[in-house]
Amino acid sequence: MNQRSALADGQDMGRVVVASNRGPVSFSQDSRGELVARRGGGGLVSGLMSVADRADLLWICAAMSEDDRAAAQRTPGGRLDLDGTAEIRMLDIPAGVFAAAYNSVANSTLWFVSHLLYNTPVQPAFGPEFAADWAAYREYNTAFALALAESAPGPGTQVLVQDYHLALVPAMLARLRPGARIAHFSHTPWAPPDYFRLLPDPVARELLEGMLGGSHAGFLADRWADAFLDCCETILGAAVDRAARRVHHRGHACSVGVHPLGVDAASLRHRSRETDVEAHVQALTEATRGRQLVVRVDRTELSKNIVRGLAAYRELLATHPELHGRVTHLVFAYPSRHDLPEYRDYTRNVQRIAQQITAEFGTPDWEPLILEVKDDYARSLAAYRLADVIVVNPVRDGMNLVAKETPIVSDRGCALVLSREAGSFAELGEHALAVNPFDVTATARAMYAGLTMPRAERDRRCAALGAAGAAMPPARWMASQLDALTAVTPA
Ligand code: G6P
Fold first, then answer.
1. Positive or negative, the Cα torsion across 341, 343, 347, 352?
2. Of 196, 239, 373, 481, which residue is most buried, by most CB within 10 angstroms?
3. Residue ranges lining ligand 1, Cβ < 6 Å
4. Which of 25, 38, 65, 163 to mutate to test the pocket of ligand 1 (most atoms within 8 A of CB)?
5. DSSP H or E segment with residue 22
6. pLDDT tens, residue by residue, 46-63
7. Within 13 Å of residue 419, how many CA atoms lie on the same side as its CB?
């Protein structure tokens, strides 16, 4: 990969077009029925905004709700403006097509494959219904490819396509605009070939060829990039140059790169000291009365392994009665993908186990666990600051930014219990308490080790974790992909 960074050089990045399913804004109605825009968070939004003065930016995304749709319909082509920093085009894809592509294919199939989530004795079962969903996924990807082709005509334009929702877009766009510079980035893990082959053969091939149709395919960790190369070799029979991380297939070459997204430490620290966070710090401190805190902050997402995490906390309390009354588990698990029954069931399961723990161990003056299922970023930052132990135990995760963010803002020098199946383990594992996410007993022991770790060691590890988490802030992460694109021959 080109070692010079376009960003470090301060050079103008030219025209950059980003495509992602979820965009940087969403709409809802206020009490008078007026549409109001809400800006989203996350690494992609902050990365893009931090290069906004250096690039001519366009972000193409899908309308994800009826209110988004209404906003998109108000302007020609769904064009919106994000505080004058970036131009946004929100695509009004027909609701039925969107639901099949997003819920059935992207979230119920591709997400399950990349995170190894299937209960294989019964799932998946690909029949005629899936064929119809797959046709919708193609249609949805075509809508993005057409919008990109229309919006990004110049040969110098760089197109950054995000995630599993849009895996077919690079090849589609390359056909529409030969010579376009197209990169795809996967924010998820990638499955090994034996698991990826659960997909119907033509679907597996179409996905891989879709991504290889661009000039560059980016991943968050070596493991995921290597698994992708394995799939290209085994499933497509493509020629894979492991040393150069390059795939040749049907007369076309695509480079594969690893860009481990991290945190903009200065801006996160600044945000974590604002008044709304301070108010939550005070409220949480009062509610937990100086007890040690084991914290987790997640979407209620199957891959996050919240249920086994709660089982581990229960085992911790069962095996260490001396901790009773002296520790509280803060579980902030905000709602996600509730159109899917598996996610609704999972959330109920989390709530049920939390209630059981409270019923089993709670006393009139001690709440062993506080569960909140409402999204509140300021409260999450307060919990990060106060954590003695932060638990990140996903069954599999592309990166996991909670593991990187918490040590950066920590007031107490927190210990990190980290699953070896998280992408961030490659960078953080050395300083974390590593766990096999399926081993509940080992997770309970790691929580205990974190709670009893000498303060000096916790501080030392926390500082090292913070430095590792800040190594590639979003702006540099974006620049490294643009650099990779300039280093390769266009599609
Ligand atoms: C993961 C994916 C993102 C997605 C996010 C939230 O991080 O990689 O593409 O936006 O989850 O999921 P949602 O389905 O709510 O967009």
1. positive
2. 481
3. 22, 107, 163, 187-188, 336-337
4. 163
5. none
6. 777 777 778 888 999 999
7. 26
